[in-house]
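Re-run requested by the PI after the first attempt was lost when the workstation crashed. Everything re-entered from the original request form. Ligand of interest: zinc ion.
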Amino acid sequence: MSQESYEGICCYCNEVVTKRTVGKHIEKCKAKIVFDSQFNNEKNYKYFSLLVEATYGRAYWILVEVSSVLTLKKVDTFLRDIWLECCGHLSAFSIKRNEIAMNKKLYDVYQQGLSLDYEYDFGSTTDLKIKMLAQIDSSDEKPIRVLAINKKPEILCSSCEKILSVYDCTSCGEQVCESCAKTHQCFIDEGEEYIAERVNSPRSGVCGYEGQNESIIKKYFPKEIPNVL
Ligand SMILES: [Zn+2]
Ligand SMILES: [Zn+2]
Ligand SMILES: [Zn+2]
Ligand SMILES: [Zn+2]
């Protein structure tokens, strides 16, 4: 899949964007928005824009703006809420394999263009890359806001290779369609509890992950939660 086809949704206007065009689009889209606190100039927070991607599934991506004074621990909570949390596994941020303490603030680690590595769960690990894009002046008070997020990637059924998959097999990690699920060997041998509906997250089908909790994630979005989640 080429970069262009990594489609997502703009969280301000719900238009379809791609990972390549999202930056330009957001600039135009944000210019039309008047933030509630626009005139509250004594609180001119600085933000960083970050591109979060799944290291081994680049179709999963989030463009997010994060207040520069947040700790990595808060970013960790965001990542868990939006994509990862199943049973409270350990996690870590690192740069070139050197772990960075969770109590560091983003401005302590920020360097334009730098990528942070992030791991959730040291057993069945989900690896993310967090690319630090630009510094932004903003008077919006939301500490974290998602600007755009990928659409659920379409993955062909690994059995028939004809129909789009709807389930993950949490035993072998393959994706299967509705009808192939009935004859999938793991489900026959090990039982139906290994079938999980595929969700829009790089952790879909891993460990006990079941998708986002809307009441937890709604605070991250400038408007409604986009319908891709
Ligand atoms: Zn837009
Ligand atoms: Zn788990
Ligand atoms: Zn199939
Ligand atoms: Zn299987």
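Saved to the shared folder this time. Confidence is low (pLDDT under 50) at residues 36-43.
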